[in-house]
Amino acid sequence: MTTDIQSEYISMDLRGVREVLGMLATEFDRMKKAKKAGRPIVGTWLNSPNEILLAANTYATTFRFEGLHSDIIKGREDLRKAYEMFNMEQCFCLDVCRSLGSPVLGAPRDYDLVVTDFTAKAPEWEGIMKTYIDEKWNFMPLEIPRGLEKKEALTHIEERLNGLRAALEEMTGKEITDDELRDAFEKTNRVRDQVKKIDELIKTDPMPIRGGDVWFAYFPMSSCYIGGEVDKTHDLLEDLHSQIQERIESGFAAYDRDVKKICAIPSGSNVTKDVYPVMEKAGGVLVTDWPCCEHGGLLFRDRIKLVGDPIKNLAKHYLKTFGIFDEVQDAKDILEMVNRLSIDAVIYDKQLDLFGYKAPVASVSEVMKVLSEKGIPIHVHEGHDVSGIKAFIEAC
Fold first, then answer.
1. For the segment 71-130, what is each residue's pLDDT rounded down to a tens digit?
2. 196-253: per-residue pLDDT in tens?
């Protein structure tokens, strides 16, 4: 099955994509080496403030749920509802792939700290964080209340950033200086520049790379630049950009027919797990998901300001985190992304995603209204029956 997926949906001849997959496959081993070298291991959410973690020289990587699977197997039936409610089966195969190098398949991480991000989570997910993550790890939630005015939200984010900075300084025994923060900004800004350049190439007609290539090309950003290896991530994306540019100049087409560029909302839903093969065969290509993460969000594209107070600059940047405000702003953010990335249609899975974000569930009606008014086809999906998605893409 793996070979078929690679041959159909991923261009393994693209060196940059192979390197991303290689980074994922060796992550467990590199994380253990970092731990042995004395670097704290930090589990993160999709939009955690990477720059502070980088300045503190932590090994930061997206929080994985391997331990949850193990605890369910051991008899923690009270946790099964999380697995079922939040579609966590989708992350299992990536968990296993990212555990290569471990003596135990799917072995859990050894986190020194787990942090979330600023977006409100669904009430059901808040319970999971308290009963599973908080009891198991040194846990620092960063959520702010949803629906605040921008000035008030900015104050809350600044407070969370200062609190995280202090916690990391206590953990490492080292001060995080303003210059170290600005140096981290410069590094992640370089990655953001490359992402914006690749965005423009992906919009080329005919499409120069496959949907699977897009998915994995952007994946390192949701892994906190794979443990703080920002320079390597930049070089990888720069190389990938050059390869895509060469394809465009030679007239290469990744598909032998016209395809529609599809946005799937939210990230980590059943859409990305169940529908990808159906989508491609029906003439659609998944090129982005909801703007909370690397595939579409301005958080991973707009530069952080370097001049001035670094914490204030970082707080202003993370105000762009999707889902902080309200349904109206959520819909504006999605419309902006659809226009910016030349999306042809949107598939909206209104079920909870595996990261527990509240915004996609709360905003489905407003998003449908705004996109429909702008003439953007949208299909609302729920459950595992993908026949409606197939018909929707074919109709597009």
1. 655 666 666 555 554 555 544 444 444 544 444 444 556 899 999 999 999 887 877 787
2. 999 999 999 899 998 888 888 888 887 788 888 999 999 999 999 999 999 999 999 9
Q: What is the rounded CA–CA span in Å between residue 308 and residue 288? A: 33
What six digits make up the tokens of 12?
């393994």
Which positions ≥6 away from 314 have C-beta within 8 Å?
Answer: 49, 51, 52, 161, 181, 185, 304
How far does the chain reach from its first CA to its final CA, in angstroms? 29
Quick one: CA dihedral 285, 287, 293, 298, positive or negative?
negative
If phi > 0 it is left, if psi is from -120 to 50 it is alpha, else beta; for residue 101 that is left
CA 137 to chain centre: 22
pLDDT band at residue 385 under the 50/70/90 scheme: confident
What's the token pair of residue 385?
């029956």
For the chain, what is the HEC assignment?
CHHHHHHHHCCCCCHHHHHHHHHHHCHHHHHHHHHHCCCCEEEECCCCCHHHHHHCCCEEEECCCHHHHHHHHCCCHHHHHHHHHCCCHHHHHHHHHCCCCCCCCCCCCCCCEEECCCCCECHHHHHHHHHHHHHHCCEECCCCCCCCCHHHHHHHHHHHHHHHHHHHHHHHCCCCCHHHHHHHHHHHHHHHHHHHHHHHHHCCCCCCCCHHHHHHHCHHHHCHHHHHCHHHHHHHHHHHHHHHHHHHHHCCCCCCCCCEEEEEECCCCHHHHHHHHHHHHCCEEEEEECCCCCCCCHHHCCCCCCCCCHHHHHHHHHCCCCCCCCHHHHHHHHHHHHHHCCCCEEEEECCCCCCCECHHHHHHHHHHHHHHHCCCCEEEECCCCCHHHHHHHHHC
The token duo for 374 is 């702008």
- Residues of 132-147 as b/e, b for ≥16 C-beta within 10 angstroms? bbeeebbbbbbbbebe
**What pTM does this model have?**
0.88
Could you tell me the two tokens for 384? 């595992």
CA distance 333 to 388: 26
pLDDT digits (tens, 9 = 90+) for 331-357: 999 999 999 999 999 988 887 777 788
